[in-house]
Amino acid sequence: MRGGEADEGRQVIVTGDRPTGPLHLGHYVGSLRERVRLQHRHRQFVIIADAQALTDNAANPGKVRANVLEVALDYLAVGLDPKVTTIFIQSLVPELAELTMYYLNLVTVARLQRNPTVKDEIGQRGFGAAIPAGFLCYPVSQAADITAFKADLVPVGGDQLPMIEQSAEIVRSFNRIYHCSVLVEPRALLSTVPRLPGTDGKGKMSKSLGNAIYLGDSEATVRDKVRKMYTDPGHLRVDDPGTVEGNPVFAYLDAFDPDRDGLEAMKDHYRRGGLGDTVIKRRLLDVLLPELETIRARRREFAGEPAHVMGMLREGSAAARAVAARTLAEVRRAMQIDYFST
Ligand code: TRP
Predict the structure, then answer these.
(1) Which residue has its alpha carbon closest to ligand 1 atom 3?
(2) What digits encode the pLDDT tens for the residues 268-300?
(3) What letter does residue 213 receive in the DSSP assignment?
(4) What one-character DSSP code corresponds to residue 197?
(5) Are 47 and 16 a contacting pair, CB within 8 Å?
(6) Which of the chain's termini has less CB crowding within 10 Å, N or C?
(7) Which CATH number fits domain 219-300: 3.40.50.300, 1.20.120.330, 1.10.240.10, 3.10.290.10?
(8) pLDDT per residue as tens digits for the range 30-48
């Protein structure tokens, strides 16, 4: 933690999402719930990373544009409060692009090519030899997102650890080369909740795999998706012993069922045999539907007032811009390019 902060004990948190699709239960369990909890204790900035989304969607600006509002609605629906969390649109803070420009000088191409998450993504997207330079460099732009607000903590899942590492390296290089302590080294706040599997039980929940339950899904859709959920293929008859590990229904119950003792008893019963899949799915719906209904109701309310939501993003972006501009002024001074500032 940094010393001498006005609000001691409060740390700066920066997180965000690329607006490429609506958010789902995996996002909710993995990060959104945590952000709602953190927002009252810390100073939180949440980025709708449209510029980052464009690094692999240059030809699909309409998709990015449409999802900025969708993601904002998801944020408000889960209970992020714009009075305490600064929610903003990345491209409306051009200081981030300028910081990126300077940070690019502190990073080698070889280092960028080693980033394991970017490597995976390059493979998934099938860029071949035609990797957009902006895509390869997005971890540097993410370092700008993080450092512009002097984030102490970045809550992330495991796949984002290389980004935090890269950001910390940039901070150390910058402060060393320019003999200053302008930038703050961020730390990852690694999510302790295991990543939610998809409804098909194959890997993580994701839009591209078509195994996601969305925060905006109707009750009927959620019921249908849960009914079709993968369980334990060896659990053919109710009396057969079942497997809890790797069974996505239990993974979801772990994430949502407040009755922990009841859940443990159910797991024992399932393992012994005699507990049917329909029973565990019914329990899942009992705990999931009310929580989703609260989210859905709030989402509907905000969705009815898109101008209000965009206004909130505009204000958040102006507030974020003011903070980023202060950091940029310090960065320019350290780099001796503060020609006409007083
Ligand atoms: N890379 C993040 C993702 O894909 C989104 C993101 C952009 C982000 N800027 C950030 C996350 C800064 C944390 C901090 O989800």
Answers:
(1) 17
(2) 999 999 999 999 999 999 999 999 999 999 999
(3) -
(4) B
(5) yes
(6) C
(7) 1.10.240.10
(8) 899 999 999 999 999 999 9
